[in-house]
Design brief:
Radius of gyration: 35 Å
Largest sheet: 6 strands, mixed
CATH topology of one domain: ABC transporter transmembrane region fold
Strand content: 5-15%
Helix content: 55-70%
Distance between the termini: 60 Å
CATH class of one domain: Mainly Alpha
Number of strands: 10
CATH superfamily of one domain: ABC transporter type 1, transmembrane domain
Strand order of the largest sheet: 6-7-8-3-9-10
């Protein structure tokens, strides 16, 4: 149980539902104000109709029966039926209106959440547990949906019903009504404590469910499943999952017991209140102070009072637990986005692709600058990261290749990630055709930059859909042209369904070389002005590397190219080679110059030649 308290603490959620949360929920509901007003009007009309039958019963007993008037009895009976039918129609309209408001609001919330998350910087995703994030976007949004479409509608309906019933009771006999109201505090006060307890239990359950989602997301993708099998750990994985699932089970039992005990207590209070009304009212009827019809009417109204009160009090518990979902959703919506378009961001003019780095330094942001603590395994805010790039000055233009080499961890990929603004520079600036990247719209900027990484990502979709992700309106002829240039067309044509063949999760049904060439074809469809190759051939065998190099030659022709490589043989013809070490440029020049200089580049080249010679032996 200690783990549950730690997780609840890490969530950062308050123990009660704050005014700010309620204000923000209402903010999302503002576009539906007219429907909310209509819903309230229908609920009020339905509640007023609800007190009509008890009053008609009074007239039936005290009027029609006592006078022996059958015609009047028939009319009153028909009015009771008419009131019931009208109330049924209003109930249907009420449910439709509440569903319109609730489902519409949740649609807006879900889209806003998805839009915000996908625009967050890459650093958010490197720190966030994917399963926990998916849980927020699914389970918590569904919890909020239930609160709006069910619970809140019930709260409003029962509140208005209780108020109209109480007023009617008071008008019929104020003394009995006052006695009935003595029990009202016993309905209201326990709800506050039980509501807080259930809300905390709900938070614990949500945290554990998010943890299980994370486990399933990591273990059930192809790479995770392969790792579990290769290390022979299925039993340990099952035991760990069962432990968390058992905790969720225990929380569910606690929640059920709290809720059931609460309902039973409210039911008993309602029965006691009804008995008091009949005892006191019966005494008044025996003394002649009220009529039998009034007593019967009040008995029906008391049942209508305590029923909504019980539901209303229980609904408060449900609302508090359901609003936990809103808190968790808003927590993600509030995630900071340091890499956002400036208010005056400009569209990118037709780019030639000339890039310039001026005095660029960079550090990775701290956790509290870019992520949500409860979505991380290590939720400590942390200090800003160390500087990983120092005072970088570079320039490269159309038709030129800039190669970046250096030991692992020297900052090569970090430097390349600054160009499409996956991160923003800490100091200095990067310009595209003289325009600071931070002054340009990100969508336009990224449309002019193409990237091929050492492990390109393919969606679990068809070959055609993966290619058209770069340009949705591409024709089959344009797909053929791009695949031909990427040296992959013959492979696609041999597939069982051609472009309609599903590549599998992360493209696992394709070989490494085939995935690389599909990624190059996708890049060619995008037709960017700037191309970044990040270790694009490092994981390929010699045969595949040769084919991919031919494809890359077409991809780079006439474009600004930044190439990151461990295999120095792939960059010997670069217009400039920059050698990074610990985030600093320590050498720069062409291949022959750097070999003659005898520095780190020469050492790396010697190690490469020695390694190839050893492999050849």
């Amino acid at each position: 149980m200690h783990l549950l308290h730690v997780m609840a603490h890490q969530s950062g959620a308050p123990k009660t539902i704050g005014r700010e949360t309620r204000r923000r929920v209402w903010g999302f509901a503002r576009p539906y104000r007219s429907k909310v007003v209509g819903f309230l009007a229908v609920v009020t009309a339905s509640s007023l109709l609800g007190v009509v039958p008890p009053l008609l019963f009074r007239e039936i007993i005290d009027g029609a029966i006592v006078a022996g008037d059958r015609d009047r009895l028939t009319v009153l009976g028909l009015l009771v039926v008419a009131a019931a039918l009208a109330q049924a129609v209003l109930s249907f309209v009420e449910r439709w209106a509440s569903a319109q408001v609730g489902e519409g609001l949740i649609f807006d919330l879900r889209v806003a959440l998805f839009d915000h998350v996908q625009r967050l910087p890459l650093s958010f995703f490197t720190r966030t547990q994917t399963g926990a994030l998916v849980s927020r976007l699914n389970n918590d949004v569904i919890g909020a949906q239930r609160a709006l479409t069910g619970t809140l509608g019930t709260v409003v309906s029962n509140a208005i019903t209780a108020a109209t019933t109480l007023i009617t009771l008071f008008l019929l006999e104020w003394r009995v009504t006052l006695l009935a109201m003595v029990l009202l505090p016993l309905f209201i006060l326990p709800a506050r404590r039980v509501g807080r307890t259930v809300a905390e239990i709900t938070r614990e359950g949500m945290n554990l469910n998010a943890s299980m989602n994370t486990t399933m997301t990591e273990r059930f993708n192809v790479s995770g499943a392969q790792l579990v099998k290769l290390f022979g750990r299925p039993d340990e994985e099952t035991d760990g999952f069962a432990d968390r699932a058992g905790r969720v089970r225990d929380i569910g039992i606690r929640n059920a017991m709290f809720s059931r005990a609460f309902v039973i207590a409210l039911t008993l209070l309602g029965a006691i209140g009804t008995a008091i009304v009949y005892w006191v009212g019966g005494s008044l009827a025996i003394s002649g102070a009220i009529t039998i019809g009034t007593l019967a009417s009040m008995g029906v109204l008391v049942a209508q009072l305590y029923g909504p009160l019980a539901q209303l009090t229980n609904a408060r518990v449900d609302v508090m637990s359901a609003f936990v979902s809103f808190e968790r959703v808003f927590e993600v919506l509030d995630a900071p986005n340091p890499v956002a378009d400036a208010p005056d961001a400009r569209p990118v003019p037709e780019a030639t692709g000339r890039l310039a780095f001026t005095g660029v330094s960079f550090r990775y942001p701290a956790a509290d600058e870019t992520s949500v603590a409860s979505l991380e395994t290590d939720a400590t805010p942390g200090e800003p990261g160390r500087i990983v790039l120092h005072d970088i000055d570079l320039a490269v233009g159309p038709g030129q290749m800039l190669a970046i080499v250096g030991p692992s961890g020297s900052g090569k990929s970090t430097l390349a990630s600054l160009v499409p603004r996956l991160y923003d520079v800490t100091d200095g600036s990067i310009t595209l055709d003289g325009h600071d990247l931070r002054a340009l719209r990100q969508d336009d900027l990224r449309a002019r930059i193409g990237v091929v990484t050492q492990d390109p990502h393919l969606f679990h979709d068809t070959v055609g859909a993966n290619l058209r992700y770069a340009r949705p309106d591409a024709t089959d002829a344009e797909l053929d042209e791009a695949c031909r240039a990427a040296r992959i067309l013959d492979v696609v044509r041999r597939l069982p369904d051609g472009y309609d063949t599903v590549v599998g999760e992360r493209g696992h049904r394709m070989s490494g070389g085939e995935k690389q060439r599909l990624a190059i074809a996708r890049l060619l469809l995008k037709n960017p002005a700037v191309v970044i190759l990040d270790e694009a051939t490092s994981h390929l065998d010699t045969e595949n590397e040769a084919v991919v190099q031919l494809a890359l030659a077409d991809a780079l022709a006439g474009r600004t190219a930044i190439v990151i490589a461990h295999r120095l043989s792939t960059v010997v013809d670069a217009d400039e080679i920059v050698v990074l070490d610990e985030g600093r440029i320590i050498e720069r020049g062409r291949h022959p110059e750097l070999l003659t200089a005898g520095g780190l580049y020469a050492d790396l080249w010697t190690a490469l030649v020695r390694g190839e010679a050893t492999a050849g032996d």
